[in-house]
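#structure-requests
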Amino acid sequence: MTRPTAFGRFFLTGPTEVRPEVLAAMNHPVIGHRGPDMADLMGGMNTRLSSLFGTGRPVYLSTSSATGFMEAAVTNLSRRRILCLVCGAFSQRFYDIATACGRPADRLDVEWGTPNMPQAVHEMLSRQRGRYDLVTVVHSETSTGVLNPVRDIAAAVREFDDVMIAVDTVSSMGGAPVLMDDWGLDFVLTGSQKALALPPGLALAAASERALERAAGTEPRGYYFDLLKFDKNCQKLQTPNTPVVSLFYALSFQLERIFQEGLETRWQRHEAMAQRTYTWVDALADRTGEAFDILAPAGYRSPTVTVIRLPEGREGPRTVADMRARGYTIAAGYGKWKPTAIRIGHMGDHTLEGLEELLAVLTDVLGE
């Protein structure tokens, strides 16, 4: 069955649904990416981008997925060894990138569905003092719906002067507080296709001054994702490589919408959608007497993604297929949770009213 085109039926965990007016903003004549038009476009976004990241630092734009800036963190910010905090598939990606790039790295794993905790990070850095110079962590782990306590983890890392922290905020930026400067983060990256509610293909990142100092003394850094090149070009209101200009126009338009709504209001809307999903799961379990529950523990749940474990006899892919037949898109669980879980991406420009419609249809599907 073909999915209806009305906005508000596509609740994938990424990419998320994009409003027609945002897509329409891309319908703009091509401009030279080294000329004054590009400088005007980038210059008009600078203040809002920095505010989005909670920083006074510039924000770099890359024509790539966010994985590119994950690689930049690995190749630019470590001279010794990296400690990768792993709690799901996307936090593991940092470790996989380090291995692929030939950079020494260790994992600090927790069970999927549980958060990385600052005490464990502090203990590891204390026990192996001098071994690591970079810690990587995912803020909102899209595979499990866990929201890691990044502020507290960063505080633990800052007790070790030469250790930096790089944070993947791909499914939290724009949907949950991310305060780069206040939290003492050295490198923050995200992608366009989740809570920012833009099409895929654009990555964004900001680096602290000491991160750039580290990069300057790190060789080799690679070519495409050399942070010093991004910083140099950003100062000229350019990008180091040919940019996806049409997406820049969509970003500029969407930033205006985001700040018209207000960042804190946007965060509150995401939290309200998450809380409504939790109460729906609890009510469904009570009504049916079946073991529907949320994978992530209370207090460590992402406001943008909820992973729901299904009771025995229920199948994640079958539930997804049944919802698609009714015109709605959700995701099955990820990795080992694919057969027995579903994921709802309540992020971006989705509303509480639209979520209610989704949950009503999902209630019918699960009742059959």
